[in-house]
Specification:
2 strands, globular, mainly alpha, 220 residues, 4% strand
Length: 220
């Protein structure tokens, strides 16, 4: 029993080493995956909502759909541009049209792409100054503005779409991008050869998003 435990731990260490060798920045890469999902869903949502519904709001007290899209674009642009070292304001909240708001949202994502492209595990906790003179880590504002806040707003906007009989992108499997297939953990686990601990670890980390070299451990 003790010998088997030692062998399992040794296999786990070898597998972990192989994984880190193939993904130099596993932590920041995982953050980027979260951001990519939000980016895809929000962009598709803004494109799916017809122009005639951009002024829609469920109750008098809430914001219109266009106001939420503009708000998301402004928050993302403001945060990510500061991280990029070139503060920029889009003033998207002043826009009302579908085309101009979708363009503003995509521009904000372009700025956040730059910020995430520069993110590594080593510099994730580097501090810098954000208005109004507050020190923050690099990863903190990025995750707060481009992942947490944007995900929250997406949840609100999904209700707007449902009320208009439109299925939100995250609920419409047919619109899932080709490079982001659904997880198949059960299948991967059942078809893995006994003792292949490395495949098990890769599967837990979402094998569909790993390099080909990692996916090969789990079969086709």
């Amino acid at each position: 029993m003790k010998r088997n435990t030692i062998l399992i731990l040794a296999a786990a260490l070898v597998s972990s080493g192989a994984f880190h060798a193939q993904m130099a920045d596993p932590l920041s890469s995982e953050f980027r995956q979260m951001y990519d999902r939000v980016k895809y869903n929000l962009t598709k949502m803004a494109e799916k909502m017809p122009q005639e519904h951009y002024g829609f709001k469920p109750t008098e007290e809430t914001r219109t759909f266009s106001q939420i899209v503009g708000h998301v674009a402004d928050v993302q642009a403001r945060t990510c541009s500061v991280i990029n070292g070139a503060p920029k304001a889009l003033n998207a909240s002043s826009k009302t049209g579908n085309a101009e708001l979708v363009a503003a949202l995509k521009e904000s994502f372009s700025l956040c792409d730059q910020a995430f492209d520069s993110l590594t595990d080593a510099n994730a906790v580097d501090t810098f100054m954000m208005p109004p003179g507050q020190h923050h880590s690099k990863i903190g504002p990025l995750m707060a503005a481009a992942v947490s806040h944007s995900s929250e707003e997406y949840g609100y906007m999904a209700v707007y779409l449902r009320l208009k009989g439109i299925v939100p992108p995250s609920s419409e499997a047919s619109e899932r991008p080709a490079d982001r297939p659904p997880r198949e953990m059960k299948y991967r686990m059942e078809t893995t050869k006994p003792g292949t601990l490395r495949c098990y670890l890769y599967t837990l980390l979402d094998v569909t998003r790993l390099p080909a070299a990692g996916r090969n451990f789990c079969g086709p």
